[in-house]
Amino acid sequence: MLSTIEQISATTKANYDARVAMFNALTWTAFDGMSKLIELNLGVAKASLAESTVTAQQLLSVKDPQVFFALTTVSAHPTVEKALAYGRQVASITSHTQTAFRKTTEATIAEIHRNRTALIEEVAKNAPAGSEHAFSLIKSAIDNTAAGYDLLTKQAQQATDMLNADLTTAANQTAQVVRKTVATGKASADSIA
Question: How many structural domains does the chain have?
């Protein structure tokens, strides 16, 4: 009996250690993702401030209202393109962070499942005769739970992939509309000048 208690204690400790390691890994992954987002935002803010200053100076030096509006339209193109690029970068950082979360969680859950399964099999060897059916039911319940988690994980990944594809499509369509609008504005500006 002492052997079974020691086995349960060792498995509980191993599972606890796995969870602590998982939470540490998730915390560092979140920290890394946030630091990348902060770095991206600082870079975008600096670039935006510099470009806004240049654009404002150009717009203030224009005397003709038609040239002003044409220049405004032409200068909108890079801004929209940069906003779309920023959105893609944010989506990429988020996607990488989500993937790291998923991998860490899956690995930890697999380890915990292996530990529990090994414990059940070991305890079942030392169990009194006639209890095989009860251990079989317990193992089956654990296997079913793991299969349910796998299915849920796959469905969540499919949903994430579909969302990323939809966002990419929307960004590309928006970029096409902006390019057409800017091309029309640039043609107007060229005809005025």
Answer: 1
